[in-house]
Amino acid sequence: MIEQARNEAQRILNTPANSSLLAKIKALKNVECETSYGDVISANFSADFSFKEQVKSLAKQLMPWRKGPFRLGELLIDSEWQSFIKFNLLAPHLNLNGKTVADVGCNNGYYMYRMLPFLPARIVGFDPSVRTFMQFKFIDHFMKSGMEYEMLGVEHLPFYEHKFDTIFCLGVIYHRSDPVGMLKQLKSSLNAGGEAIIDTMFIDSDEEIALCPRGSYSKIPNIYFIPSISALRGWCERAKFKEFEVLGVSQTDHVEQRKTEWIMGQSLNDFLDPVNPNLTIEGYPAPKRVYVRVKI
Q: In 16-30, which positions are buried (b, 16+ CB within 10 angstroms) versus exposed (e)?
């Protein structure tokens, strides 16, 4: 199953447009970089004007940049999401020292870079998106992290070569039509005593219910279920997780998610009701997120 998925990913990467972009990334000259892993993932280097323009041009070709921000030399890639807001909420709860870590739905690897100062033994990112894979390859040309990126989905995790001590699954579960099945896949991919860090949008209710958007939610068509926290706890219990801990909640705002020159199309301001920002454009409750840790 995994080899078939890898072969399909390679086939997509070999298409003319994608192979051309990858060739441009590989052709970038090597420069000595001073790297840092704070709110802005940074690789500072000195280079001539032509190389700076080459880097900027390639970064623009890799748009849209959803997660970040990143700084390469003098170039700031100001992503749609200020992803450090989410990570900084999670950071006080993390113990990754010496652990084998997976980031499922890793996008361009921003959160993986933020994990590096926590000294995990290994980090593997999973995401089938070609665009974000190429963004990671571009950024990692400068960061030289040694991290792995697999163009695989959560459904491939139970068949992977090894299990994990900690699995991050941030902003994925509401995209799955079988959320309990996905949680079971996470559980089966953990080592004994392992944990999963999960975030999802949620609705305010003490009842064990979930919102099932009819067509779209915040103009996103592939949102299937947005649970209450009680419903999420029930899903995790059905998946046989033994511990469920709420780490925090937040409401998505225009500081965290906004339109920048580094994305194409719309952002949060376009997804909310123009009269009542507590509602989506469809009339549903505006996005709130809950962050939980579950253990086996």
A: eebeebbebbeeeee
DSSP secondary structure code for residue 115 in this structure: H
Q: How far is CA 269 from the centre of its chain?
A: 21
| Tens-place pLDDT, residues 131-153 | 999 999 999 999 999 999 999 99
pLDDT one-digit tens code per residue, 245-271: 999 999 999 999 999 999 989 999 999
Measure the CA–CA gap between 84 and 78, rounded to whole angstroms.
12
For residue 68, the SS3 value is coil
Query: Residue 231 contacts by C-beta under 8 Å, 6 or more apart in sequence?
Result: 207, 208, 209, 210
Which residue type is seen at 25?
Answer: I
Residues 57-82, buried b or exposed e (16+ Cβ, 10 A)?
Answer: ebbeebeebbbbbbbbbeeebbbbbb
Integer angstrom CA distances of residue 84 from 18, 87, 94, 255, 258:
29, 5, 15, 11, 14
Contacts 24+ apart (CB under 8 A), 138-142: 138/25, 138/58, 138/59, 138/62, 139/41, 139/43, 139/70, 139/72, 139/108, 139/109, 139/113, 140/109, 141/25, 141/28, 142/31, 142/33, 142/35, 142/43, 142/45, 142/72
Do 77 and 69 meet the contact criterion of CB atoms below 8 Å apart?
Answer: yes
The answer on pLDDT for 1 being more than 90 is: no
Q: What is the per-residue pLDDT across 25-35, written as a single tens digit (0 to 9) for each?
A: 999 999 999 99
- Give the CB-side neighbour count of residue 87, counting CA atoms within 13 A: 24
